[in-house]
Amino acid sequence: KANQVAYKLREIGVKQDDFVAMLTERSLEMIIGIYGIIKAGGAYVPIDPTYPEDRIAYMLGDSAPKAVLVYKADIQTNIPVIDLADSEVYSGTSENPERVNMPEDLIYCIYTSGTTGKPKGVMIEHAGVNNLSRFYIDEHQVNEEDKVLMFANYIFDASVTEIVTGLLSGAQLHIASSDLRGDTIGLAKYITERGITIALLPPMFLAQLKVEGLRTVITAGSEASRRIIEENTHIPVYSNDYGPTEGTVCATFWKYESGTPLPERIPIGKPISNKKIYIVNGNTLCGLGMPGELCIAGDGLARGYLNMPELTAEKFVKNPYGEGRM
């Protein structure tokens, strides 16, 4: 079905670096849509269909997508709309289309809230997602026996980690409904009954869960605490991950394994594969124990902010300590 969506998008004229907006949270169609956009060569722009109309209009106007994918949603736009609920979408050939994506092509543009009041579109390239997927699959030894939970709404970049960790490793991907995201008892039951082995959760949500069966739990999005880890020592591996959207989801990780000493304050750890971390004060590297600003370099830095060249130039600078940008 993703192949058939890809052909429909190519008929519209979608090619490399073109945006295609998505307004659906329905689980299967969401995955079909994302993979269809990527297979067509485009980059997906996830938009929550429950957003206010003016916010949706702003994101569509800012990203200027070649098409919009929906699922039984009514949207007022002059942009071509493909309804993933329409059986006609899946009437064409289902063979894999010719692969056109290159590492430097865009794979998605996720909007973050920002401090200006207007959301910022962060443009991420294939190379960054490839680096992310290889790290998670290798670090956590994910294989076809695993069942990975997709907890995050697809408008948040944590979903990217869940999708690629599950589907690019041969594991099963189990997508939690929006109702389960607010139901700790229901989600714990879902994890147990489905036999979920790997889950990525916000620390405060994990703190309210009594969950069994996981072999690995990953927390991200806010600060983890010693108490949360102590209450989950029955889970063999606990990873505390950190990173901004601009660094392709994850920049650093700290892994705790049951039976090892637990620090009072939980660190964000060390860089993931092919990334570098610097703590700086102005243009000077800080010594041990000295406070400073955390800067990220290496694979997976965003191309920049969509339609914001001045902000991009301010935040993404030449790395004074090595190759590439920081």
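That was protein one. Protein two is written in the same sequence-then-structure order:
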Amino acid sequence: AVACERAEGVIPCPGVVPGSGPIGDAIAHGAELVSELDFAFSFCSRPIIAVTGTNGKTTTTELIAAMVRACGCSVALAGNNACPFSEAVMESPQADYFVLEISSYQLETTLHFHPKVGAILNVTPDHLARHTTIEQYAATKAKLFARQAKDEFSIVNADDPVSAPLTDAGRGRALSFSLARAVPAGLWVEGEVIREGDVEVA
């Protein structure tokens, strides 16, 4: 209890509800609550590609990391997996890119974090015991875009009615992807062909 009272800041595990238990005691005595994402971000000078969503985060981030490596660049894969973002920053500070799997729990208390490229794959009812409503859950996911600059990219799933409008949360360049229809800016699938507008890209 004395340690909590003397703490100047706390960086909680994302799975811990902010303000609960000893963390709540520390905050009540004036400690600053800092998300692990914000803490690591303050030491990261490399471009970040971050992916969130209810489903598909792990597969997508591993695919992106493989694509980055295939381009001849070094990559640190971290976040909501076996390697925390802060650990990756310490171990691979000069990686060409950081590819992060991000959960809603990690985004919940962020104030500064913003990726060069952010993607929200989908938002379906989950973790509602903590986020209460699907609207609050989606708003937490949208924090991925909230502090992006105009030269950064916000990517959403055009086929998912909850995540599709979330690019409105920030100022980044809005892009989308679809398996069902052409999109004004982004990639879409026609049969076995991937297109960008009318151009076949794969």
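Residues 45 and 162 are 32 Å apart (CA to CA). Keep this in mind for the problem set.
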